[in-house]
Amino acid sequence: MRTTVGIIGAGPAGLLLARLLHNAGIDSVVLESRDRAYVERRQRAGILEQGTADVLRAAGAGERMDREGLRHDGIELRFDRTRHRVDFPALTGGRSVMVYAQTEVCKDLIALQLREGGPLLFEAEALAVEDPGTDAPRIRFRHEGREDVLECSYVVGCDGFWGVARKAIPAGLTQVFERTYPFGWLGILADVPPSHDELVYARHERGFALLSMRSPAVSRLYLQVPDGTDPGAWDDEEIWDELERRFETADDWYLQRGPITQKTVTPMRSYVHEPMRHGRLFLAGDAAHIVPPTGAKGLNLAAGDVVTFARALVHQQETGSPELLDAYSQICLRRVWQAERFSYDMTTLLHRAPGATAFEDRLQLARLERIASSRAAETDLAEAYTGFPFG
After folding, report:
1. What is the set of active-site residues?
2. Cα separation of 199 and 207, whole Å?
3. pTM confidence score
Protein backbone atom coordinates (compact mmCIF):
# COMPACT_ATOMS: atom_id res chain seq x y z
CA MET A 1 0.00 0.00 0.00
CA ARG A 2 1.46 3.38 -0.97
CA THR A 3 0.50 7.05 -0.64
CA THR A 4 2.07 10.49 -0.62
CA VAL A 5 1.10 11.36 2.98
CA GLY A 6 0.43 8.74 5.63
CA ILE A 7 -1.68 10.24 8.42
CA ILE A 8 -1.84 8.51 11.79
CA GLY A 9 -5.01 9.42 13.72
CA ALA A 10 -8.50 10.44 12.66
CA GLY A 11 -9.08 13.16 15.21
CA PRO A 12 -9.78 16.69 13.96
CA ALA A 13 -6.12 17.25 13.04
CA GLY A 14 -5.73 14.14 10.90
CA LEU A 15 -9.13 14.52 9.27
CA LEU A 16 -8.64 18.21 8.51
CA LEU A 17 -5.21 17.49 7.02
CA ALA A 18 -6.66 14.79 4.78
CA ARG A 19 -9.29 17.28 3.58
CA LEU A 20 -6.75 20.02 2.90
CA LEU A 21 -4.54 17.61 0.96
CA HIS A 22 -7.51 16.28 -1.03
CA ASN A 23 -8.46 19.82 -2.02
CA ALA A 24 -4.87 20.41 -3.15
CA GLY A 25 -4.82 17.23 -5.24
CA ILE A 26 -2.42 15.37 -2.93
CA ASP A 27 -3.27 11.78 -1.99
CA SER A 28 -3.24 10.50 1.57
CA VAL A 29 -4.28 7.54 3.70
CA VAL A 30 -5.63 7.99 7.25
CA LEU A 31 -5.12 5.23 9.83
CA GLU A 32 -7.29 5.32 12.97
CA SER A 33 -6.98 2.74 15.74
CA ARG A 34 -10.55 3.21 17.01
CA ASP A 35 -13.85 2.51 15.28
CA ARG A 36 -15.93 5.26 13.68
CA ALA A 37 -18.52 5.37 16.45
CA TYR A 38 -15.84 5.99 19.07
CA VAL A 39 -14.26 8.85 17.10
CA GLU A 40 -17.63 10.49 16.52
CA ARG A 41 -18.59 10.48 20.19
CA ARG A 42 -15.20 11.32 21.75
CA GLN A 43 -15.89 14.44 23.85
CA ARG A 44 -13.12 17.01 23.69
CA ALA A 45 -12.86 20.70 22.86
CA GLY A 46 -15.77 22.89 21.90
CA ILE A 47 -14.36 26.34 21.06
CA LEU A 48 -13.14 27.13 17.54
CA GLU A 49 -11.00 30.20 17.01
CA GLN A 50 -11.82 32.54 14.15
CA GLY A 51 -8.98 31.08 12.08
CA THR A 52 -10.05 27.48 12.65
CA ALA A 53 -13.64 28.23 11.66
CA ASP A 54 -12.40 30.04 8.55
CA VAL A 55 -10.22 27.08 7.55
CA LEU A 56 -13.14 24.66 7.94
CA ARG A 57 -15.29 26.88 5.73
CA ALA A 58 -12.58 27.17 3.07
CA ALA A 59 -12.11 23.37 3.15
CA GLY A 60 -15.82 22.80 2.47
CA ALA A 61 -16.52 21.57 6.01
CA GLY A 62 -18.26 24.59 7.47
CA GLU A 63 -21.88 24.31 6.35
CA ARG A 64 -23.28 22.51 9.40
CA MET A 65 -20.97 24.44 11.73
CA ASP A 66 -22.43 27.72 10.46
CA ARG A 67 -25.96 26.37 10.72
CA GLU A 68 -25.77 24.72 14.15
CA GLY A 69 -22.74 26.27 15.85
CA LEU A 70 -23.01 29.20 18.22
CA ARG A 71 -21.01 32.29 17.35
CA HIS A 72 -19.72 34.02 20.48
CA ASP A 73 -18.55 37.60 20.45
CA GLY A 74 -17.16 37.62 23.98
CA ILE A 75 -16.66 35.96 27.33
CA GLU A 76 -17.51 37.03 30.85
CA LEU A 77 -14.93 37.21 33.63
CA ARG A 78 -16.45 36.85 37.07
CA PHE A 79 -14.56 37.64 40.27
CA ASP A 80 -15.27 39.09 43.69
CA ARG A 81 -19.02 38.83 42.86
CA THR A 82 -18.53 41.25 39.93
CA ARG A 83 -19.02 40.62 36.19
CA HIS A 84 -16.96 41.93 33.30
CA ARG A 85 -17.62 41.17 29.64
CA VAL A 86 -14.74 41.06 27.14
CA ASP A 87 -16.08 42.20 23.74
CA PHE A 88 -14.04 40.34 21.10
CA PRO A 89 -15.10 42.13 17.88
CA ALA A 90 -14.64 45.57 19.42
CA LEU A 91 -11.13 44.70 20.57
CA THR A 92 -9.88 42.61 17.63
CA GLY A 93 -11.30 44.23 14.52
CA GLY A 94 -14.30 41.92 14.26
CA ARG A 95 -12.95 38.51 15.30
CA SER A 96 -15.07 36.02 17.26
CA VAL A 97 -15.14 32.34 18.22
CA MET A 98 -17.53 29.50 17.44
CA VAL A 99 -18.95 27.01 19.95
CA TYR A 100 -19.03 23.76 17.97
CA ALA A 101 -17.97 20.50 19.57
CA GLN A 102 -15.00 18.45 18.35
CA THR A 103 -17.34 15.50 17.92
CA GLU A 104 -19.31 17.48 15.35
CA VAL A 105 -16.17 18.64 13.54
CA CYS A 106 -15.09 15.00 13.27
CA LYS A 107 -18.49 13.88 12.00
CA ASP A 108 -18.41 16.52 9.25
CA LEU A 109 -14.85 15.71 8.16
CA ILE A 110 -15.40 11.94 8.27
CA ALA A 111 -18.45 12.24 6.04
CA LEU A 112 -16.49 14.32 3.52
CA GLN A 113 -13.50 11.99 3.58
CA LEU A 114 -15.58 8.87 3.03
CA ARG A 115 -17.54 10.52 0.24
CA GLU A 116 -14.77 12.35 -1.60
CA GLY A 117 -11.33 11.70 -0.12
CA GLY A 118 -8.74 8.97 0.05
CA PRO A 119 -8.77 5.86 2.22
CA LEU A 120 -9.83 6.30 5.86
CA LEU A 121 -9.23 3.04 7.70
CA PHE A 122 -10.86 2.61 11.09
CA GLU A 123 -9.61 0.00 13.55
CA ALA A 124 -6.21 0.26 11.86
CA GLU A 125 -3.63 0.37 14.65
CA ALA A 126 -0.31 2.02 13.80
CA LEU A 127 2.45 -0.12 15.29
CA ALA A 128 5.54 1.86 14.30
CA VAL A 129 6.92 4.55 12.03
CA GLU A 130 9.98 3.14 10.30
CA ASP A 131 12.86 4.97 8.59
CA PRO A 132 11.51 8.49 9.21
CA GLY A 133 14.90 9.99 8.42
CA THR A 134 14.89 8.67 4.86
CA ASP A 135 13.02 9.62 1.69
CA ALA A 136 10.82 6.55 2.07
CA PRO A 137 9.28 6.35 5.55
CA ARG A 138 6.81 3.57 6.32
CA ILE A 139 3.99 3.01 8.77
CA ARG A 140 3.62 -0.53 10.00
CA PHE A 141 0.02 -1.14 11.07
CA ARG A 142 -2.51 -3.84 11.92
CA HIS A 143 -5.91 -3.91 10.21
CA GLU A 144 -8.56 -6.63 10.05
CA GLY A 145 -6.36 -9.08 11.92
CA ARG A 146 -3.22 -8.80 9.80
CA GLU A 147 -0.15 -6.60 9.66
CA ASP A 148 0.51 -4.39 6.67
CA VAL A 149 2.87 -1.58 5.64
CA LEU A 150 1.93 1.84 4.30
CA GLU A 151 4.78 3.28 2.22
CA CYS A 152 4.79 7.08 2.21
CA SER A 153 6.65 10.11 1.01
CA TYR A 154 5.73 11.84 4.28
CA VAL A 155 4.23 10.75 7.61
CA VAL A 156 2.18 13.07 9.82
CA GLY A 157 1.57 11.87 13.38
CA CYS A 158 -1.80 13.14 14.61
CA ASP A 159 -2.05 10.23 17.04
CA GLY A 160 -1.97 12.05 20.36
CA PHE A 161 0.34 11.90 23.35
CA TRP A 162 0.29 8.10 23.61
CA GLY A 163 0.74 7.42 19.89
CA VAL A 164 3.69 5.87 18.08
CA ALA A 165 4.72 8.85 15.93
CA ARG A 166 6.60 10.82 18.56
CA LYS A 167 8.43 7.68 19.71
CA ALA A 168 10.02 7.39 16.27
CA ILE A 169 12.07 10.55 16.88
CA PRO A 170 15.40 9.61 18.51
CA ALA A 171 15.45 10.65 22.15
CA GLY A 172 18.86 12.25 21.73
CA LEU A 173 17.40 14.77 19.30
CA THR A 174 14.47 15.87 21.45
CA GLN A 175 13.78 18.26 24.26
CA VAL A 176 10.64 18.15 26.40
CA PHE A 177 9.09 21.00 28.38
CA GLU A 178 6.23 20.21 30.75
CA ARG A 179 4.30 21.28 33.81
CA THR A 180 1.69 19.30 35.75
CA TYR A 181 -0.89 21.26 37.73
CA PRO A 182 -2.07 20.11 41.19
CA PHE A 183 -5.74 20.32 40.19
CA GLY A 184 -8.11 19.16 37.48
CA TRP A 185 -11.55 19.95 36.10
CA LEU A 186 -14.68 18.08 37.13
CA GLY A 187 -16.78 18.48 34.01
CA ILE A 188 -20.49 17.80 33.58
CA LEU A 189 -22.95 17.70 30.70
CA ALA A 190 -26.46 18.68 31.76
CA ASP A 191 -29.77 18.71 29.93
CA VAL A 192 -30.56 22.32 30.74
CA PRO A 193 -30.27 25.52 28.66
CA PRO A 194 -27.10 27.51 29.45
CA SER A 195 -27.58 30.08 32.18
CA HIS A 196 -25.69 32.67 30.15
CA ASP A 197 -25.40 33.19 26.41
CA GLU A 198 -21.57 33.34 26.49
CA LEU A 199 -18.87 31.48 28.42
CA VAL A 200 -18.35 32.57 32.01
CA TYR A 201 -14.89 32.21 33.59
CA ALA A 202 -15.20 32.54 37.36
CA ARG A 203 -12.40 33.06 39.86
CA HIS A 204 -13.52 32.22 43.41
CA GLU A 205 -11.75 31.66 46.70
CA ARG A 206 -13.03 28.05 46.60
CA GLY A 207 -11.60 27.52 43.11
CA PHE A 208 -12.28 28.10 39.44
CA ALA A 209 -15.56 27.42 37.63
CA LEU A 210 -16.52 27.60 33.95
CA LEU A 211 -19.96 27.88 32.41
CA SER A 212 -19.99 26.66 28.81
CA MET A 213 -22.44 24.89 26.50
CA ARG A 214 -22.75 22.31 23.75
CA SER A 215 -26.03 23.60 22.30
CA PRO A 216 -28.93 25.89 23.25
CA ALA A 217 -30.36 22.97 25.25
CA VAL A 218 -27.22 21.37 26.73
CA SER A 219 -24.91 23.00 29.28
CA ARG A 220 -21.25 22.11 29.83
CA LEU A 221 -19.87 23.20 33.21
CA TYR A 222 -16.61 22.69 35.07
CA LEU A 223 -15.31 22.92 38.62
CA GLN A 224 -11.71 23.06 39.76
CA VAL A 225 -11.05 19.98 41.92
CA PRO A 226 -7.93 18.40 43.43
CA ASP A 227 -5.82 16.31 41.08
CA GLY A 228 -6.92 12.67 41.12
CA THR A 229 -10.54 13.39 42.09
CA ASP A 230 -13.02 10.59 41.39
CA PRO A 231 -16.02 12.13 39.55
CA GLY A 232 -18.29 9.59 41.22
CA ALA A 233 -17.40 11.06 44.61
CA TRP A 234 -19.57 14.09 43.82
CA ASP A 235 -23.33 13.68 43.75
CA ASP A 236 -25.44 15.88 41.50
CA GLU A 237 -26.73 18.25 44.18
CA GLU A 238 -23.22 18.79 45.54
CA ILE A 239 -22.04 19.78 42.08
CA TRP A 240 -24.86 22.26 41.50
CA ASP A 241 -24.45 23.73 45.00
CA GLU A 242 -20.74 24.27 44.42
CA LEU A 243 -21.30 25.79 41.00
CA GLU A 244 -23.80 28.21 42.50
CA ARG A 245 -21.27 29.32 45.12
CA ARG A 246 -18.50 29.93 42.60
CA PHE A 247 -20.68 31.78 40.08
CA GLU A 248 -22.33 33.99 42.71
CA THR A 249 -22.80 37.64 41.73
CA ALA A 250 -24.05 40.81 43.40
CA ASP A 251 -26.97 41.10 40.95
CA ASP A 252 -29.98 38.87 40.28
CA TRP A 253 -28.24 36.36 37.97
CA TYR A 254 -28.92 32.72 38.86
CA LEU A 255 -27.78 29.29 37.71
CA GLN A 256 -30.36 26.97 36.16
CA ARG A 257 -30.16 23.33 37.22
CA GLY A 258 -31.02 20.22 35.22
CA PRO A 259 -30.33 16.48 34.91
CA ILE A 260 -26.59 15.67 34.75
CA THR A 261 -25.89 13.14 31.99
CA GLN A 262 -22.10 12.89 32.20
CA LYS A 263 -19.33 13.46 34.75
CA THR A 264 -15.62 13.38 33.96
CA VAL A 265 -12.40 14.69 35.46
CA THR A 266 -9.78 16.24 33.17
CA PRO A 267 -6.17 16.51 34.40
CA MET A 268 -4.33 19.76 33.76
CA ARG A 269 -0.89 19.82 32.17
CA SER A 270 1.31 21.75 29.78
CA TYR A 271 3.63 19.85 27.45
CA VAL A 272 5.79 20.71 24.43
CA HIS A 273 7.98 18.32 22.43
CA GLU A 274 10.75 19.87 20.34
CA PRO A 275 11.35 19.46 17.48
CA MET A 276 8.02 18.71 15.80
CA ARG A 277 9.75 17.22 12.76
CA HIS A 278 12.37 14.55 12.12
CA GLY A 279 13.23 13.85 8.50
CA ARG A 280 9.93 13.19 6.76
CA LEU A 281 8.00 12.60 9.98
CA PHE A 282 5.94 15.57 11.20
CA LEU A 283 4.08 15.78 14.53
CA ALA A 284 0.77 17.63 14.89
CA GLY A 285 -1.65 18.27 17.73
CA ASP A 286 -1.35 16.41 21.04
CA ALA A 287 1.49 14.30 19.65
CA ALA A 288 3.64 17.42 20.00
CA HIS A 289 1.98 19.69 22.56
CA ILE A 290 -0.71 19.79 25.25
CA VAL A 291 -2.23 22.84 26.91
CA PRO A 292 -4.51 23.13 29.93
CA PRO A 293 -8.05 23.69 28.64
CA THR A 294 -8.46 27.11 30.26
CA GLY A 295 -7.41 28.92 27.08
CA ALA A 296 -9.43 26.72 24.65
CA LYS A 297 -6.33 26.17 22.49
CA GLY A 298 -5.89 22.39 22.01
CA LEU A 299 -7.95 21.74 18.88
CA ASN A 300 -7.00 25.11 17.45
CA LEU A 301 -3.28 24.45 17.81
CA ALA A 302 -3.76 21.13 16.02
CA ALA A 303 -5.56 22.91 13.18
CA GLY A 304 -2.70 25.39 12.90
CA ASP A 305 -0.17 22.57 12.66
CA VAL A 306 -1.88 20.78 9.79
CA VAL A 307 -2.59 24.01 7.91
CA THR A 308 1.13 24.79 8.16
CA PHE A 309 2.08 21.33 6.87
CA ALA A 310 -0.41 21.39 4.01
CA ARG A 311 0.76 24.84 2.87
CA ALA A 312 4.40 23.74 3.08
CA LEU A 313 3.80 20.59 1.04
CA VAL A 314 1.86 22.47 -1.63
CA HIS A 315 4.68 25.02 -1.78
CA GLN A 316 7.23 22.23 -2.24
CA GLN A 317 5.22 20.62 -5.02
CA GLU A 318 4.63 23.91 -6.82
CA THR A 319 8.13 25.36 -6.52
CA GLY A 320 10.39 22.39 -5.81
CA SER A 321 11.64 24.19 -2.69
CA PRO A 322 11.60 22.33 0.66
CA GLU A 323 12.08 25.61 2.52
CA LEU A 324 8.69 25.65 4.27
CA LEU A 325 8.78 21.94 5.08
CA ASP A 326 12.22 22.42 6.60
CA ALA A 327 10.85 25.32 8.69
CA TYR A 328 7.72 23.42 9.82
CA SER A 329 8.81 22.91 13.41
CA GLN A 330 10.05 26.47 13.82
CA ILE A 331 6.87 27.96 12.34
CA CYS A 332 4.54 25.82 14.44
CA LEU A 333 6.44 26.27 17.68
CA ARG A 334 6.17 30.06 17.55
CA ARG A 335 2.39 29.68 17.66
CA VAL A 336 2.53 26.79 20.14
CA TRP A 337 4.53 28.74 22.69
CA GLN A 338 2.23 31.75 22.46
CA ALA A 339 -0.71 29.42 23.12
CA GLU A 340 1.17 27.78 26.00
CA ARG A 341 1.85 31.21 27.44
CA PHE A 342 -1.77 32.30 27.14
CA SER A 343 -3.12 29.03 28.58
CA TYR A 344 -0.72 29.26 31.51
CA ASP A 345 -1.69 32.88 32.13
CA MET A 346 -5.41 32.05 32.09
CA THR A 347 -4.88 29.04 34.37
CA THR A 348 -2.84 30.92 36.98
CA LEU A 349 -5.18 33.91 36.73
CA LEU A 350 -8.34 31.96 37.58
CA HIS A 351 -7.40 28.84 39.59
CA ARG A 352 -6.55 28.88 43.26
CA ALA A 353 -3.44 26.81 43.87
CA PRO A 354 -3.40 24.54 46.97
CA GLY A 355 -1.88 26.49 49.82
CA ALA A 356 -2.15 29.84 48.03
CA THR A 357 -1.32 32.79 50.30
CA ALA A 358 -3.35 35.95 50.84
CA PHE A 359 -0.70 37.81 48.82
CA GLU A 360 -1.23 35.48 45.85
CA ASP A 361 -5.00 35.84 46.13
CA ARG A 362 -4.73 39.63 45.99
CA LEU A 363 -2.41 39.42 42.98
CA GLN A 364 -5.02 37.40 41.11
CA LEU A 365 -7.67 40.00 41.86
CA ALA A 366 -5.31 42.78 40.82
CA ARG A 367 -4.65 41.05 37.47
CA LEU A 368 -8.39 40.63 36.87
CA GLU A 369 -9.08 44.25 37.83
CA ARG A 370 -6.37 45.32 35.38
CA ILE A 371 -8.09 43.47 32.53
CA ALA A 372 -11.43 44.99 33.50
CA SER A 373 -10.04 48.54 33.60
CA SER A 374 -7.40 48.60 30.85
CA ARG A 375 -8.28 48.38 27.16
CA ALA A 376 -4.71 47.31 26.40
CA ALA A 377 -4.83 44.39 28.83
CA GLU A 378 -8.31 43.44 27.67
CA THR A 379 -7.22 43.55 24.02
CA ASP A 380 -4.29 41.23 24.72
CA LEU A 381 -6.70 38.66 26.17
CA ALA A 382 -9.19 39.04 23.32
CA GLU A 383 -6.54 38.72 20.61
CA ALA A 384 -5.12 35.57 22.18
CA TYR A 385 -8.52 34.00 22.84
CA THR A 386 -9.82 34.52 19.30
CA GLY A 387 -6.60 33.06 17.90
CA PHE A 388 -3.03 33.58 16.82
CA PRO A 389 -2.39 33.69 13.04
CA PHE A 390 -1.65 30.41 11.26
CA GLY A 391 1.81 30.13 9.71
Report:
1. 72, 201, 293, 297, 385
2. 17
3. 0.95
